[in-house]
Specification:
alpha+beta; DNA polymerase, domain 1; OB fold (Dihydrolipoamide Acetyltransferase, E2P); 4 domains; five-stranded mixed barrel; four-stranded mixed β-sheet; 24 helices; globular
């Protein structure tokens, strides 16, 4: 409904009639192309990894196939071999038979043709009884129920009645008995077709919307799931895969829900920010009716601070919703990315002053006395951030932690970005690319959830959720693996994991059985050839040189250090002696990068 409102708003602007989802074509080729590629994240009933694998094999090209998909993707059909038979018959790899190549009855073709001769629905069980044995509708329903209960005495009675009814239609008793046995076998797996048809139609409608109106559709799905962080992470990754533009939350343009602007970009909903409920959002949208907010001081002066407290304001800043009000904002994304940490640092530093200034203005206004000097000496274009520009720039970790705390996810980056280049040296696959296999696979990511429990023997075992920005996977560590890795298992820790990937029948996704866990430091120590520094004469004067020596002493290890040294007169590649070997820990790398710049400190790998 939210998607249709956005779509019809845009259609009205170009004098097009409103879209009625009940009248969309059911044979739309682009929609089936999307389905056949299994690009079904956010598509009703077709989202799970297991369902996507089934879709890739089946390659649905009509609504009947979608209806069948819903009925097929259940434990019974999946374990019975019915699914493979269905797919092989559809694609001509197996003979079409009604219902079986050894015992066919052509009169069943109209009943079973939509499912390629496979008995899939409860209604087909009833129709077979009616067509072959002359059952009434009520009698056929009683047969269906009896088959579901599987009582031997009742089934013997029903079998006799079925064969007797077939005889009146001149159908051979052996053929009738064989078909009855086959029907009985599959009746337990039969799904109600009316339910499956309803699900299949909605699946098609949502796939059609995703195909033809991707931005409004994804905005609506995000709005529906905005308080389910795991789902939002998946949906935002899908938006990036679809090459849609997602703008950060913005107090000047965002609504409570996710919306789509006139340029077709999805605007992050303010309601998805933790601690920002409908009350604060109403206060913001009411205040901006008088025009966009110019800066943080203007924002605090105009909104109702009784509805937006300091904690809410802090959340708005850390989520990025006030970025455009900061002094270092830039419309060009790459340029802004370079100043985003300074911008948010200034906003956080100025927050107390902006609140106090707004409260003072409100008190003066409430007292009925004019503030004779309040604006007298303030120029129109005065720099309201003049006293805050020297605020210490946020680190990447601080900025991303702020986003995770307020949005539940990382929007402008990911902690793994810091390690992206080196991670690919020892974990070539991303989580999204993992497939079930008996071979050991290696993946790197951040632990975002950790659960510890005891097995029947009383030994501890653990379950972790890994996130590498491409996706998430649950990994299990049984007693031995857990004992070996216990010290590394902490929320927000970056780890490299080796293990076996398999299907998870419960979630429909994948799971990883862990054999070994390494910290980033362990992986570096095993694979790094040297720590490389690019320094100039100015970097090695007095206190800095002493600081560097003390830092290396605190992080002694086995990794060699090399330095590209540049002076006004010469360049040289220096190899430090063995007494200066280090442990390439995060703390050391970060300290060096803070001091000398990110591009001047890196690890070289074998």
């Amino acid at each position: 409904d939210w998607a249709l409102k956005t779509i019809n708003r845009d259609r009205a602007k170009v004098d097009e009639p409103p879209l009625d989802i009940a009248f969309i074509p059911l044979d739309d080729k682009p929609t089936y192309q999307l389905l056949q590629k299994a690009e079904t994240t956010a598509v009703f009933q077709l989202e799970s990894r297991g369902m996507k694998e089934l879709i890739k094999k089946l390659k649905p090209d009509c609504l009947e196939d979608l209806i069948a998909l819903v009925a097929l993707f259940r434990p019974g059909p999946l374990q019975s071999g019915m699914v493979d038979d269905f797919i092989n018959r559809k694609h001509g790899r197996a003979e079409l038979a009604y219902p079986h190549s050894d015992y066919q009855y052509e009169g069943l073709k109209p009943v079973l043709a939509p499912t390629y001769g496979i008995i899939l629905y409860q209604e087909q069980v009833m129709q077979i009884a009616q067509v072959m044995a002359g059952y009434t509708l009520g009698g056929a329903d009683m047969l269906r129920r009896a088959m579901g209960k599987k009582k031997p005495e009742e089934m013997a009675k029903q079998r006799g009645g079925f064969i007797e009814g077939c005889a009146t239609n001149n159908i051979d008793a052996d053929l009738a008995g064989n078909i009855f046995d086959l029907v009985e076998k599959f009746a337990g797996y039969g799904f109600n077709k009316s339910h499956s048809a309803a699900y299949g139609l909605v699946s098609y409608q949502t796939a059609w919307l995703k195909t033809h109106y991707p931005a409004p559709f994804m905005a609506a799905v995000l709005s529906a799931d905005m308080h389910n962080t795991d789902k939002v992470v998946t949906l935002i990754e899908e938006i990036r895969t679809m090459k849609l533009r997602l703008d950060a939350p913005d107090v000047n343009t965002s609504e409570f829900k996710f919306t789509v602007n006139d340029e077709g970009r999805i605007i992050y909903g303010l309601g998805a920010i933790k601690g920002v409920g409908e009350g604060p959002v109403e206060a913001i949208t009411e205040a901006r009716q008088d025009g966009p907010f110019k800066d943080l001081f203007d924002f605090c002066a105009r909104v109702d601070l009784k509805r937006i407290n300091k904690r809410t304001l802090d959340g708005l800043i850390r989520s990025g919703a006030l970025d455009r009000l900061g002094p270092y904002f830039h419309d060009e994304p790459k340029a802004y990315q370079a100043s985003i940490d300074q911008n948010r640092a200034v906003l956080l530093n100025a927050m107390e002053g902006a609140i106090k200034a707004a409260e003072q203005t409100a008190r003066t206004h409430d007292s009925g006395h004019a503030d004779l000097f309040g604006g007298l000496f303030v120029e129109e274009d005065a720099d309201v951030y003049a006293n805050h520009r020297k605020a210490k720039e946020l680190t990447l970790k601080e900025r991303l932690k702020g986003e995770k705390d307020t949005l539940g996810l990382y929007l402008t980056g990911h902690p793994i970005d810091e390690y992206e280049g080196e991670i690919r040296r020892f974990a070539r696959q991303r989580i999204i690319d993992l497939k079930p296999a008996r071979d050991t696979q290696t993946v790197a990511g951040m632990i975002i959830a950790l659960r510890v429990m005891k097995n029947k023997k009383g030994d501890k075992m653990g379950f972790i959720t890994l996130d590498d920005r491409s996706g998430r996977i649950e990994a299990s560590l049984f007693a031995d693996a857990f004992h070996s890795a216990q010290s590394l298992l902490q929320t927000d820790a970056m780890v490299v994991v080796e293990g076996e990937v398999s299907n998870d029948d419960f979630s429909g996704g994948l799971r990883l059985r862990v054999k070994r866990v390494m910290s980033m430091e362990d992986a570096r120590t095993n694979l790094a050839e040297s720590l490389r520094l690019k320094l100039q004469t100015k970097d090695l004067k007095g206190d800095q040189l002493r600081w560097l020596g003390e830092l290396f002493k605190r992080h002694r290890g086995a990794c060699p250090i090399t330095m590209e040294y540049t002076s006004p007169d010469a360049k040289a590649l220096l190899q430090f002696g063995e007494t200066w070997r280090i442990d390439p820990a995060d703390a050391l790398i970060q300290a060096l990068r803070d001091q000398f710049g990110r591009d001047n400190v890196f690890l070289q790998y074998r």
